[in-house]
Structure formats: C-alpha cells, structure tokens
Amino acid sequence: DVTYENGQARERTQVLMDIANRLGGMVIGTGDMSELALGWATYNGDHMSMYGVNASVPKTLVRHLVRYCADTADSQTLKETLLDILDTPELIPPEDGQISQKTEDLVGPYELHDFFLYHILRFGRHPAKVYRLALKAFEGVYDAATILRWLKTFYRRFFAQQFKRSCLPDGPKVGSVAVSPRGDLRMPSDACVTLWMQELDEIVE
C-alpha cells in the first residue's frame, strides 16, 4: 500500500543521508519538476536532499536527456543501465517479472501534465484556456474526455501538494518556469482549488 511505498522512500533517503554524512558528501535529489508539481514524492523521503538538480526540469525532458545519453554512450553497460532506468521507474517490486505499478496509470501522462504546467506557470492561463490549447496540441493523441480528466487531476494535486514545495531543497532554474518557493512560485500551502475546479466543471465535452 501507499505506506509501504512511502516507507521505502524514507528509508532509502535516510540511508543515503547517513552515508553522505559519514563521507562528507551530499545527497543530490533526483525529483523533477513534474513530480514536484503533482506532489509525486514522499514527504521527507525522496522529496528531500541537499540539492535538487532536476527541480526545474520537466519529466519529459529528463526522459529525453537520459535516452540521449544512452544513445551516445561509449559503454554498452552504461547504455543498458540507462535504458533499464527508463523502462522501470517504479517503487513497487515487479510481480512475476511484470511491473506491478505504473505511475502514469495513477496520475496521468506526463506529456499532458508538462504541457499544463508550462501554460499555467509561464503564462498564467486559466483552466478553460489550458484545456482548449491541449485539445489542439494533442489532437489525435488524446480525446477531450481524457484531457479534461487529467487536467482536473493536475489542478487537484497541484494545489493539494504545495506544502511539499514550500520546503524544497535549493536547486537551479534551468528553463523558463520553476516551482521553487524562493523564486517563481509564491503560493500558500492552504490555497484552495475550488474556483479552478468550478471553471473546469463548466466545460461541456
């Protein structure tokens, strides 16, 4: 269950912190901007590090960069390792060799969420406008009902998970938007999503 998953993340982080402390090193965070926007990180688990290098890099770009590194790797071992990372990014161990949890089945396609995030943070667009833009951008890929479903999920999670972003470790700003509380995103943790959801509920597919 979710407690088991969170327990893994917290224990893994504790072990890494202890080793870094003993060696005089740093724990470098691997969470990306898409995960931070959706709150897809365990509070005081993989949510925490000494420095979050991917904090302003969306997951779709992380995937592209990892695949590029795999495609251009001199070592076959490195290539295979990177491709394996791309194929198995889940916390729960496989069952009978099959991945038993798929994040995008739970939170939705990251290519949609990254699109939503960019237009919301970069241009401050309202929900209905983001929806219309997504219909055009993903025509033939996702139908209207799917886009609306995941847009509602995005807004619900984005508002509910601000408390995790309010205490993020430092990290660089790489692109034109970021979710750092010390820079681009000044948002109270108790902000209410009601008005945004009302606008989405008025949309007729």
Written account of the structure:
With 205 residues, this protein is mainly alpha-helical. 55% of the residues lie in helices and 2% in strands. It contains 10 helices and 2 strands; from the N terminus they run H-E-H-E-H-H-H-H-H-H-H-H. The chain has helices at residues 2-23, 33-38, 59-71, 76-87, 103-107, 110-123, 127-137, 144-160, 162-165, 194-201, and strands at residues 28-29, 51-52. A two-stranded parallel sheet has the order 1-2. Helix 6 packs across helix 7. The longest helix has 22 residues, at 2-23. The mean pLDDT is 89.
Largest sheet: 2 strands, parallel
Global shape: globular
Q: Let me know the average pLDDT.
A: 89
> What is the number of helices?
10
What order do the SSEs take from the amino end to the carboxyl end, as H and E? HEHEHHHHHHHH
Radius of gyration: 18 Å
Proportion of beta-strand residues: under 5%
**Helical proportion, percent range:** 40-55%
Distance between the termini: 34 Å
For the biggest β-sheet, the strand order reads: 1-2
Pick out the low-confidence regions: none
- Structure classification: mainly alpha
* Annotation, overall tally of beta strands: 2
